[in-house]
Amino acid sequence: MTQINVVILAAGNGSRMKSKRPKVLHEVAGRAMIDWVITAVQPLQPQKIITVTGVGAEAVRDHVGNRSEFATQAEQLGTGHAVMQAQDYLQAGATLILSGDTPLFTTDTLAALITEHERTQNAVTVLTAEAPDPTGYGRIVRGEDGMVLKIVEEKDASVTERRIQEINTGVYIFNNDLLFAALSKVNNDNAQQEYYLPDTLDILREMGYPIGAYQALDFEESMGVNDRVALAAANQAMRRRINRQHMKNGVTLLDPATTNIGADVTIGQDTVIEGNVTLQGQTSLGSGNYLTAGSRLVDMQLGDDNVITSSTLEASIIANRTTIGPYAHVRPNSTIADQAHLGNFVEVKQASIGQGSKVGHLSYVGNANLGAAVNVGAGTIFVNYDGVHKFNTTVGDRAFIGSNTKIIAPVTIADESITAAGSTITADIGYHEMGIARSRQTNKKDFWDRMPHKKD
Ligand code: UD1
Ligand code: CA
């Protein structure tokens, strides 16, 4: 394959999105749309990637960073005008042009387009697709002999042309010299008063150059995102693609249509995931885990054979064979060791929970290191914050924290020590000691009679 240049169009204002965010930064399966485009072209090893920016240029450039060079389109006068802004950046040869709002193209499809272009030696080869519903796309107009004549935008199309189902995907590969020769002849005499890139096909054909089309096998890849309805459709399509891959790898998804797995997530074999589960960011799961509906994991690392029940887990590490939930919340920078258990309504933040330790019910464990086989009774609060500073607590192996203990950090609770239920612990507890800190109960005799009572 010869060396190519890539131009990604991303200067438009995306007005149909009705958003403050530039359109190409809207996310599909957890990645900005333009990231998907860049990821699809990178394996083609282009000698240059030029992104044309305009509306929201700074945000787009910051996001894309050094993965691309940038050209500026100061005024959004159309896709043809946008490509002209990239001219000075391109090296001789062929240029592949894509839009930043078509996130679903695969490298394979783009490579097939390039191969077809090289085989035919066309001046331009456009990637087309047969759309079940072509509304909104440019249509491919062919002559009686089947050869491509031109592309007509929907707004400029006749009634007959609108019936054409073969659409312009917005991906083209051009011979550079001919691209810019044709662009210099494009005018804005059309419904949108824009300089259309697709007009270059008609112009090159009129100039006597061969033009052609390569039809993608799968329309889904061609989906262009102009509004939030299409964004949802693109998300669904991407999710289907990602989920299919995980299922092929040996992951059971019980209701894939409602399972939301980000692009960078890895999952081991024989993990079973119920519907309505979300896995985001740099999350990795080992094998044999079970995640029930309502679980949400962001930037999590899990080992094997954990059972996660309707819980929210963030930026933490969970080892193996733990049971978490229902309704637990593991907040960032926590480490949960093998066979630990976090039960109902337990929140853990920046804490490590040792092997086999149990925090069963209604507790908050913040800024704490718990050893192995610790038992934390119901309603325990690690009081870690004075409004300004955070303080740490250490709890040794096999310590027994009685229910409704308040542990006012900083304190150290030794191995095999105990807190009496209901205590407010403010001082360290030594090995084999019990800390008790609560007022003693007194019973008032005959108090019943001194109480007011309602008469029925
Ligand atoms: C475009 C094509 C249409 C094709 C469809 C495929 C044109 C005129 N039409 O329509 O034939 O079927 O894509 O998805 O090309 N942009 C700029 N500068 C501009 C205008 C647009 O950089 O002045 C960028 C946009 O940011 C976007 C891309 O070009 O990433 C396409 O523009 P958009 O307005 O979305 O074109 P469509 O109407 O979708
Ligand atoms: Ca578009």
Compose a concise summary of this entry.
The chain has nine helices and 39 strands. The protein has 456 residues and is an alpha/beta fold. A hairpin with a 2-residue loop joins β2 and β3 (31-32).
Task: Please count the beta strands (DSSP E, at least 2 residues each).
Answer: 39
* Rg estimate, integer Å: 31 Å
Largest sheet: 14 strands, parallel
Silhouette? elongated
Low-pLDDT windows of residues: none
Number of helices: 9
State which percent range the strand residues make up: 25-35%
Helical content stands at: 10-25%
Bound molecules: uridine-diphosphate-N-acetylglucosamine, calcium ion
- Category from helices, strands and their pairing: alpha/beta
Ends apart, CA distance between termini: 95 Å
| Mean pLDDT figure | 97
Q: How would you summarize the topology of this molecule?
A:
Blueprint: E1 4-10, E2 27-28, E3 31-32, H1 33-41, E4 48-53, H2 57-64, E5 69-72, H3 79-84, E6 94-99, H4 107-120, E7 124-130, E8 139-142, E9 148-152, H5 159-162, E10 166-175, H6 176-183, H7 199-206, E11 211-215, H8 228-248, E12 252-253, E13 260-261, E14 266-267, E15 272-273, E16 278-280, E17 284-285, E18 290-291, E19 296-298, E20 301-302, E21 307-308, E22 312-314, E23 317-318, E24 323-324, E25 329-330, E26 335-336, E27 341-344, E28 347-353, E29 358-361, E30 364-370, E31 375-376, E32 381-383, E33 393-395, E34 400-401, E35 406-408, E36 411-413, E37 418-419, E38 424-425, E39 434-435, H9 447-450
Parallel strand pairs: 1-4, 1-6, 4-5, 7-11, 12-15, 13-16, 14-17, 15-18, 16-19, 17-20, 18-21, 19-22, 20-23, 21-24, 22-25, 23-26, 24-27, 25-28, 26-28, 27-29, 28-30, 29-31, 30-33, 31-34, 32-35, 33-36, 34-37, 35-38, 37-39
Antiparallel strand pairs: 2-3, 6-10, 7-10, 8-9
Bound molecules: uridine-diphosphate-N-acetylglucosamine and calcium ion.
